[in-house]
Amino acid sequence: MNIAIVGTGYVGLVTGACFSEMGVNVCCVDLNAEKIESLKRGVIPIYEPNLDTLVSRNAKAGRLEFSTSLKEVLDNVSVVFIAVGTPPDEDGSADLKYVLGVAKEIGQNLKKYALVVTKSTVPVGTAEKVRSAVKAELEKRGVDIPFDVASNPEFLKEGNAIEDFMRPDRVVVGVDSDKARQIMESLYRPILLQNFRVIFMDIASAEMTKYAANAMLATRISFMNEIANLCELTGANVDMIRSGIGSDSRIGSKFLYAGCGYGGSCFPKDVKALIKTAKSLGANMKVLDAVEEVNESQKNILFKKFEKALGGNLKGKKVAVWGLAFKPETDDMREAPSLVLIDSLLKAGCEVSVYDPVAMDECKRRIGNVVKYAPDIYECSKNACAIFHVTEWKEFRMPDWEKIKSLADNPVIIDGRNALASTNLCGLKYVRIG
Questions:
Q1: Is position 266 annotated as part of the catalytic site?
Q2: Is the pTM here over 0.70, yes or no?
Q3: Chain segment 214-224, per-residue pLDDT in tens
């Protein structure tokens, strides 16, 4: 089968590489000529474990190609995945201009049947807008070429995306025709043969499933952060509470970790978009309003703990920030708690040193040289009166605390991920969440 994937961002590139690994002939299309040329040279624009190997292997095998022209590709494919960005608009709604731009281009150039699949995270009703955009362009051309639309939302976790694609919890597919279903069944046959769940449903339900899933996970995080904050007032321990409630099979233990707030490309954007969708239909998402409010507040908790620990005298203090990405195994800093923390520290007059295994270049791109970029956690911690543990990278789990104690200025360790409690901190003051 030959398919095209429009958009070579995180979702598009991972999807294209994984489908090609399963034997599908894939052409990834992007208007950014520089990015396409880099991909042709094997240079990957994002950090995702093993993605570079997967892209290189399938490009060499001829199953994975890259192009800047959807028009040139369209005649040779039976499926077009739309995997372009849907950034939040000023009012919090998903901006669909790139999605609908691709739909319009398909309508302008379509010559034979194709299945148009939205892979981007889009609000309920987007598939119908895509259908209308394609149809409008066909009518302008005075041609009647059959096509179908479908929804196939992604559920990839950054840092584990390839495994998530190849061994998914489930694949959700929204269709409204037998032909579309048959094509998607054929495309996902390798996964079906391995007995992974491919769940077919109507298109609107598939679109909503993606938002509902992310909203539920975000809700669990904000709920535990609220419990953690209450624990600090009552003397309870949030980790013990997590163990107690997570052992209930009706609840489970995943996404019950207290911390300094969620970030990334999905949860913040999707919660906002779902709230906006509801408001546009005259409904209020009271729970999600609270989820968002709690999360925004939680991103300030590390700075507040720092203020409390130092008695408010912060100007000129040297501090270290371990971790910049919103989560480990990615360089993604979208909505990252580290950005909120660094901004507060700089405004308070602190001297900030930072280290992250992969997100240093991304941080420089975002905030420039207003902080010091250290080559490792030890250089980062020199003369620091406080060390913030913000991203739970594995290399931060068991540092040489004696060395850090000798390098830093009797620092307070402020753990935003509750990951260091079980280590021997060599007498250093330790502050955590909950």
A1: yes
A2: yes
A3: 999 999 999 99
